[in-house]
Amino acid sequence: MESTRKPESVFTPETLATQLFQHWRIPITATFKVAFSAGMDSHVLLHALTGLRQLYPISLSALYIDHGLQPQSMAWGEHGAVVCRNLSVPYSVHRVAITAIPRYGLEAAARRARYGQLAKLLNVGEFLLTAHHQDDQAETILLQMLRGAGVPGLAAMPPRAPFGHGELLRPLLGYSRASLHAYARRHALNWVEDPSNQDLRWRRNYVRKEILPRIEQHWPDAPQVLARAAMHASDALELLDEVAVADLADSRHTTHDRYPQTLSVAAVNRLTPARQRNLLRYWLRIQNYLVPGTQQLDELLRQISTESRSRHARIQWGGGEVWRYRDRLVAVPRLPQPDASMDVPWNMTETLRLPSVGRLHIESSCGSGVSRQRLSAIGLRVRLRQGGEYLRLPGRVHHHALKKLLQNAGVPPWERSRLPLFYANDELVAVADRWVSADYAARPDEPALRIVWEPSFGLENSP
After folding, report:
1. Residue 303 lies in domain
2. Cα-Cα-Cα-Cα dihedral sign, residues 147, 149, 154, 156
3. In this structure, is residue 105 part of a structural domain?
4. Which of 22, 210, 259, 366 has a 20 to 30 Å separation from 173 between CA atoms?
5. What pairs with residue 436 in β-bridges?
6. Do 217 and 279 belong together in one domain?
């Protein structure tokens, strides 16, 4: 016997107010910023919020993010301006460039660009509202299941989460697309339709148009049930995260300025395999990395469970790299190799940014760094290691092989090919911000220039 669909939850401004101010206890003086696409869902959300302004002293504005993926995107932005003007809602358009498509894929790269821009627009204590609804949640869960996702993926989209300097709210997750469509028709709303939503080459569209309707023929309540399953997964994720937080505290390696989220290999190896995987997934997630697949995680655990001769190893995936070096596990972005033949002049008066190497600048000092006087008439050139470099350190008689200095200092292998070397008249003056040649080092009381190197690994997600 086939089941019947339960009555739809009717969406109104009053039910929205109950969700926001009673269930979530959002202050009635809150600042709400709506991610507004000019489509039906976000139009419904924005319209309902304008109804709340008559009862609550909220601050409301709309943000349109233009990816430029569709030729109509500018026209949609102009339509959004008309809608917001009619609703007396402040409105702004923000254009973003989509990068890292080979790394994440177009859909994920666009989402990262969109949310990255939205996070920048959210001030302390403000709330970003998106119009994701119950059917979106059901589609997300099915897609995650078909990807073989773990508990974080099955938890899908949380109704409420920290975001930027404020919070992200999804107050429509309890309502179906049909319920929102009924609201839109009831209020004669005028929205735009994205033609790409009909393109079945996109997996989400295929699930929406082909898979979910067939499931609902036999399980009419499928979207509600899947959304409930996401809530159960969210509860399980909370428990797993609590375990991971405790394991992370016990597994942290000595704090390093460049790599504050470093794990001890020995500590990780003391955990059971399930807790190892849970810890590594959590550790990568809090650093904003896409979590690698099961095979890659298992390969990493295999590599750290045995002591290799070189004592370093790594795994790579679309989102980054995890290196084991000695007793440390470090996650770094996956970057292109720098141009080994690089030879760049630097006047030391301006910040220099080098692709896949990092950012260089100078700080004035006294007695620490390169002698200002000895470099006053000589320009520096920045190169990379070629092999066979030697350096004589202050207070030493003999020259030392740079390779040996790097090994003794524990400079990790992922930095070595990117270390900027500074030359004057083909003489090696300094190695990154680590060593200065005895011939160019400042005396204890002498004005000096201290080189500061910020590696690309730490700059990948910075402004």
Report:
1. 252-332
2. negative
3. yes
4. 210
5. 430
6. no
